[in-house]
């Protein structure tokens, strides 16, 4: 077996691992690959030799020691195994074959606290660790994913050339993704969708927020589809055509594009459109839930991201919903009188809600960096989401531009471009939500995004009353508007005329 020959190693030959390995080989790097079950490695190597022009640079191993010996030092080994315990087990089995200074790169959807822990443990043992988000599914991994690394800077210096080579590329001026790669012939030039994001768990945290945004982006699109179906009586094919049209404008994004395709897909097993035959109960692997939980913990108002997770949970109660539909009645749906106006209103609602959802994601990142001691560059994050990943979208360039204009921007909705869009679109956004509510069509994502916008732009909210309720039943104290913040009072309730005590 070749010794000390490979530039990099990769463990885990499921779909993502196979495609990332081929992408690395396409870029001229020699890669050693290993999988826990040897059959998987053999199958992959057989496929590789048959079909892949870059296979001469892929070395397959069924023995872990031979695999590690084939990699040049300091070894760089990418793990693409299941997050959680399987990642820990893989690291444990790998360590006896490594030497101090070797680098482990976890490319799975790891929980950022696991990444922080692993980085600490491995550093103590003399190894270097990078937790890197990898987004873009199978095709992204093969032809250019968005890569979100965090961890050891020394390790990043070693990994960076490979990560930059294999990442998706965008046009330096417009930020538009450069496509067209085929096996063996990668895209040349462009700005790579990867950058070092910060120490320990920063990369995996950013990837998790990407996924939280992915959840809300998808839910918003689903609500737009549902309104068109229910209030306009359009069939899936017609709705698909509208999404295709929208994809040519400001909403242009991967998720809008695939929605156009999906809705126009005919049922291979019968007449009509496939979407009408698919069960309306969504699963989830957990990263959206992690995002919402982290927002709750940090006190970041990412209400729409949380709503998107809850919407999946409600959808999953299929049998219960079917029963309830026989028992609970809502209003009869009134078909819309002016379909062109409603379509325009839904498009506005989608764009305005999307802006608020991203604002929540970035606000969460901003809270997280304070807690975890990171210094995230929001413009760069938007830039590396511009290509390769699931939430890639034209409007991310507007986010990069917004942070370039003002690196200290408190909230995206305050940027002049986004502010104008929201001012312009809000009346149609409100009409859409109002119409959905009066017809009994659930729009938790549109509605929560609007509530976020209205809450954020309110100088006063009813939390004054809330503070008093807390003080009444639990002596939790309250602050006054006519005193400096941080000065707390308590009333001996119930006695409105009794003097308040400073506490
Ligand atoms: C990506 C995706 C990916 C995620 C799937 C499934 O960036 O490529 O986010 O990492 O695993 O989208 O996620 P759910 O099963 O939670 O929907």
Structural class: alpha/beta
Mean pLDDT: 96
CATH top level assignment of the largest domain: Mainly Alpha
| CATH topology name of the largest domain | N-(1-d-carboxylethyl)-l-norvaline Dehydrogenase, domain 2
Q: Please, what is the CATH homologous superfamily of the largest domain?
A: N-(1-d-carboxylethyl)-l-norvaline Dehydrogenase, domain 2
Number of strands: 13
- Tell me the radius of gyration: 26 Å
Low confidence ranges: none
The domain tally reads: 3
Helical percent range?
40-55%
Query: How would you name the oligomeric state of the polypeptide chains in this document?
Result: single chain
How many DSSP H or I helices?
19
Could you walk me through the main structural features you see in this protein, from its secondary elements to its overall organization?
The chain is α/β, with parallel strands linked by helices. The chain folds into 3 domains: about 190 residues, NAD(P)-binding Rossmann-like Domain (Rossmann fold), CATH 3.40.50.720; about 250 residues, Orthogonal Bundle (N-(1-d-carboxylethyl)-l-norvaline Dehydrogenase, domain 2); about 40 residues, Single alpha-helices involved in coiled-coils or other helix-helix interfaces, CATH 1.20.5.320. Helix content is about 55%, strand content about 10%. The chain has 19 helices and 13 strands. The strands form 3 sheets. The chain has a 7-stranded mixed sheet, sandwiched between helices. A 3-stranded antiparallel sheet has the order 9-8-10. A hairpin with a 6-residue loop joins strand 8 and strand 9. Helix 8 packs across helix 11, helix 9 packs antiparallel against helix 10 and helix 12 runs antiparallel to helix 18. The site of 6-phosphogluconic acid has 12 residues, from helix 8 and helix 11.
